[in-house]
Amino acid sequence: MLDKYLEYLQFEKRYSPHTITSYRKDLEDFSHFYLKTEASEDISKADKKVIRNFIVELSENNISKRSINRKLSSLRSFYLFLLKVGEIKVSPTESISSLKFYAEKQIPISQEEMQALSDGVLIDQPDILEKCIIEVLYQTGMRKAELCGLMFEHVNLEGNELKVIGKGNKERFIPISADLSNLLRSYLEIRKPDTEYKTYFFINKKGKKLNEKFVYVVVNKYLSLVTTKEKRSPHILRHSFATHVLDNGAEISKVKKILGHSSLASTQVYTNANIEQLKKVFNQAHPRASKKEEL
């Protein structure tokens, strides 16, 4: 049933290959545990006790609560599928709650640090692809998987716009600056894809589609030159993008659309570290707020 479930995610839910790989890994981890403890490969027969024991083992192996919750979410989705197709009558995850944890606070790269990267390090950087990776991630808030999967036909340099396929195969359009369009035009002059990968916009030096590990290494390398902050990943560039545009007065509903969030609550995370800036904007903009008063 695992293969049928993954086909369901691919063809009916239209999940991205990256998301399907994550689901497969989570379910295979549980399958190995089930085989070890129950001497069976048929995880459709699992009960609540086995699920709880799986969570305990993950915790004892120092797997983070965030990762455990993701695996539990994958199991919930799998058993809901089995309910849907009539393979089971009750989900073994039905009354099992996710683990509570306090999310680690993400500290964005500062605007000054990003300016130093753009005006100092990148300006003389001969590797146009690496420069594009940094600038596209920071100027669009795109996820690294979305960057790697960006289709050639979805890049509109004349209209200064990118079409991005995000989580759940949802489409969104992201405006880009004229300067970024010009940088991407420069990249096109050196882009040499193999025939198999020509539909992807970003291509590595071997002519193949970019992989996420390469993107991470590039981002980490350049951010290490301008900051001592611990987090130096593609995601922190997404976080920094959201923080900086909100700092500069962008409407949170519009930032939500650009980031591809399904709920406003996801976008509001980026306002938590910037409450003083938001107070200032409010006091300047609200018709009943006195400019001499602070919230």
Automatic annotation (TrEMBL):
Cellular compartments annotated: Cytoplasm
Any Pfam family hit: Phage_integrase
UniProt domain Core-binding (CB): residue ranges: 1-83
InterPro entries given in the database record: CB (IPR044068), DNA_brk_join_enz (IPR011010), Integrase-like_cat_sf (IPR013762), Integrase_catalytic (IPR002104), Integrase_recombinase_N (IPR010998), Integrase_SAM-like_N (IPR004107), Tyrosine_recombinase_XerCD (IPR050090)
Boundaries of every Tyr recombinase domain copy: 104-283
UniProt entry tagged with the keyword Manganese: no
Keywords: Cell cycle, Cell division, Chromosome partition, Cytoplasm, DNA integration, DNA recombination, DNA-binding
Domain of life where this protein originates: Bacteria
Major location category of this protein: cytoplasm
PANTHER family: PHAGE INTEGRASE-RELATED, TYROSINE RECOMBINASE XERC
Name used for this protein in its record: Integrase/recombinase XerC
The organism of origin for this protein: Chryseobacterium lathyri
